[in-house]
Amino acid sequence: MGSERMEMRKRQMSAQQETSAGGAAPAQQDQPGQGSRGSNACCFCWCCCCSCSCLTVRNEDREERTRKASSDVKTEGPTDCDDSPKPTVEDVRSWGQSFDKLMHCPAGRSAFRQFLRTEFSEENMLFWLACEEFSKETNKSAIEDKARVIYEDYISILSPKEVSLDSRVREVINRNMLEPTSHTFDDAQLQIYTLMQRDSYPRFMNSPVYKNLFKSLSEQSPEC
């Protein structure tokens, strides 16, 4: 009887050991799955890092293109009239004949720009000059970059150098900015040109800037 109990006890212990071994196996089988999940997590992290790196490169490239476009959108010549090409008395006299003659003369544009600065409207000349340079651009990529710079500098309502344009012209520019061309700002440039001609030009002709320059050159000319 005692031997039968011992034998039964051994069988029970043997069965418990088999059950324990069977339960542990699935846990061990789960380990490869855990390793796979860890591998997938690593792959996910790598993809995220790669995407972020590519996005950073693209952003840096865009910023570099914008900086280059901004430097290429140059205003003409020196900022001070004293450093501009010196006009002759005939040049200065011709400025009084028409606004077109004034704007076609580098020294005339410089003197007029100095006057506009005293009236806090120099941005009109700066915008017109930027459009002149922009209209000569032929490279499509450069056109897009420079158009964005001009828009941000002179068209955006957030810019301190915003020029005064009516709503119709602004709508035209906003449509043109979807696919910029070298003619994107033609209407705006013409409107600012007309504004300077009708508003600022008559005051310039009666200003000390013009009168003193004409008087100085007349005194230096042997013919006068």
Automatic annotation (TrEMBL):
UniProt biased composition (Low complexity): 21-32
Positions of the RGS domain: 98-214
Naturally occurring in which organism (per UniProt): Denticeps clupeoides (denticle herring)
Alphabetized UniProt keyword annotations: Signal transduction inhibitor
Gene3D superfamilies named in the record: Regulator of G-protein Signalling 4, domain 2
Region (Disordered): 1-32, 65-88
PANTHER family: REGULATOR OF G PROTEIN SIGNALING, REGULATOR OF G-PROTEIN SIGNALING 20
Protein name, per record: RGS domain-containing protein
InterPro entries given in the database record: RGS, RGS_sf, RGS_subdomain_2
Protein's UniProt keywords contain Repressor: no
SMART domains linked: RGS
Any one GO biological process: negative regulation of signal transduction
Biased segments, Basic and acidic residues type: 1-10
Coiled coil location: none
